[in-house]
Amino acid sequence: MQQIEISKLNQLDYHSNEAYKSLRTNVQFCGEDIKVIALTSCTPSEGKSSVSFQLALSMAEDGKKVLFVDADIRKSVLIGRHKIVAKNIKGLTHYLSGQNKLEEVLCKTNIENLHVILTGPVPPNPSELLGGKYFKELLTTQRDKYDVIIIDTPPLGSVIDSAIVSRQCDGVIMVIAADEVSYKFALKVKDQLDNAGCKILGAVLNKVKLKGNGKYYGKYYGKYYGHYYGKED
Ligand SMILES: Nc1ncnc2c1ncn2[C@@H]1O[C@H](COP(=O)(O)OP(=O)(O)O)[C@@H](O)[C@H]1O
Ligand SMILES: [Mg+2]
């Protein structure tokens, strides 16, 4: 197994910290058979990478054994954002293309309980690789080794990779940036996930401005999904 150093972590404010704790608790209440979880969204920049990684950290902090998989092969931000020294590190695409064994692409980190698989170089056919036998094998062989596997994916509105990943997971969480996507678009993406056979665990309402908009306070996470949409009708 490789070793990486995650040097930069976000300092969360009180509200964000509480919201992640609520999200963590809600995910844990989804049941013990929900172990492999993907995060997706309608458009880029709604906060999938931030929320998925922070959720992984929060669960690791809570003593859970966590594997974080960066499956946003086309546009990974993990290495740059968290100042990870990844020279000569083998990633997901090395494994998915059959160049390396799974054991060789897994990374221990300086964070207790957190293992990571970085993306690796961008191949010409990410969707095919994510739908192939190796990705399936990754999930089936690792699910018993971790308490939870969290997978960051690309936005579903732009590429199909996310649905390909999500249908192989136990559940998917939609990250929705407040005031950035329309109700129709969010619903379309939800339908797309449903049609692909993905189990939607709920939604995270992200980028909520708390000042002067207190009505959203405390409604960051899954169980409020229907409630939030209900309000838009
Ligand atoms: N809750 C939030 N509040 C403010 N900015 C956020 C929040 N979540 C994410 N961002 C910012 O939005 C940008 C896009 O986030 P990112 O997680 O990369 O989105 P995605 O993975 O969906 O493309 C980043 O600059 C990130 O720091
Ligand atoms: Mg991202």
Quick structural gist:
This protein has 233 residues and is an alpha/beta fold.
Bound small molecules, deduplicated: adenosine-5'-diphosphate, magnesium ion
Report on the biggest sheet: 8 strands, mixed
What is the H-and-E element order?
EHEHEHHHEEHHEHEHEH
Mean pLDDT: 89
Class in CATH? Answer: Alpha Beta
Which residue ranges are poorly predicted, with pLDDT under 50 across at least 5 consecutive positions?
Answer: 218-233
CATH architecture: 3-Layer(aba) Sandwich
Shape: globular
Sheet with the most strands: spatial strand order: 1-4-5-3-6-2-7-8
> End-to-end span in angstroms?
50 Å
| Helical percentage | 25-40%
Number of strands: 8
Tally of helical runs: 10
Radius of gyration: 17 Å
Strand portion = 15-25%
Fold-level CATH name: Rossmann fold
Number of domains: 1
Name of the CATH homologous superfamily = P-loop containing nucleotide triphosphate hydrolases
Given helix and strand content, the structural type is alpha/beta
Task: Please provide a written account of the structure.
- With 233 residues, the protein is α/β, with parallel strands linked by helices.
- The protein has one domain (22-232): Rossmann fold, CATH 3.40.50.
- It contains 10 helices and 8 strands.
- Strands 1-4-5-3-6-2-7-8 form an 8-stranded mixed β-sheet, sandwiched between helices.
- Helix 1 packs across helix 2 (48-61).
- The longest helix has 15 residues, at 14-28.
- Residues 41, 44-50, 77, 206-207 line the site of adenosine-5'-diphosphate.
